Predict the structure of PTS transporter subunit IIC.
Amino acid sequence: MKVLNGISIAVVVALVPQALLGELFKALLPVFPAGQSVIELVSLASSMLPVLIGILVAMQFKLTPIQTAATGIAAVCGSGVAMPDPAGGFHLQGTGLVINSGLTAAIAVGLLLLIGEKLGNYTILLLSTIVTLVAGGIGWVVTFPAVKVLTVWLGNLVNGATTLQPIVMGVVLAVLFAAMIVSPVSTVGIATAIFMEGIASGTANLGVVAAGFGLLVGGWKANGFATSLLHVLGSPKVQMANVLSRPVIFLPVLCTAAIVGAVGGATGISGTPISAGFGISGLVGPLAALNYEGWGWSAGNLAMVVVVFVALPLGLSILFNALFARIGWVRPEHYKLDFK
């Protein structure tokens, strides 16, 4: 759980800038060419994900500054984000393999805990070298090839199945991501790790949207206006404790997610590995859908995005919440949040 928590925080810190601004400035490039600098900056920030994974995983274990820095270096070595360039140096691209970054960071932490204080005064001289060669070497040479094959295969399986059966897989992915967004698992991390793309990404993202609107409607009377908006503009994860303690209150959300996912699959709502899992927060999902190949900012596409990302999930949330409340399975106080 400590490793997963570190990865989750790193994913948000490194990928949110690109998710919020990358798609927006891509759309603005024809009228604002200087926005290319913003795109490059946020893209560079996303490539820093592996080092952040290493550092934040190490912080979960309360390691020293030297140990933390060494874990960050090892995570980069195992991520594959920087590959040797035949012309010399390294070629930095993308975010690397999130799963292997976390795995390498875990190996580094285990090695550091094993070493402890045994190096004494030689710690500053030897520790980073040992961790880089052992943990980083295992991540680079041993685990990276296997994890890459696994993640690419899994991503191709999900993306391919969604292309063949967009409605069925739309339902499955939307329900799955709706459930994951109120669990300790990072939806953004999962989507990025297996390279979810196209309709698979778009429908998964709609599951997060359904969760946001469903929890907003369910707890409106108990939480008030501002707190309820947090589920949509922030993250539905704020309801994790309530949902895990009383799972039945999530049934209206799952019903909404299934229908919205089916509609998203039928209409071809798409996205990127980074946009999947963010929901409507920062307009990440809608912007990714509009900027996706084959779409565009036409009036028809704008209307479609508004309906699928806002009107449909909101309307269905009201309907299913009223239905389940009528039979006594959910009440506003079940969704009560207390931040004191």
Remarks:
- The mean pLDDT is 89.
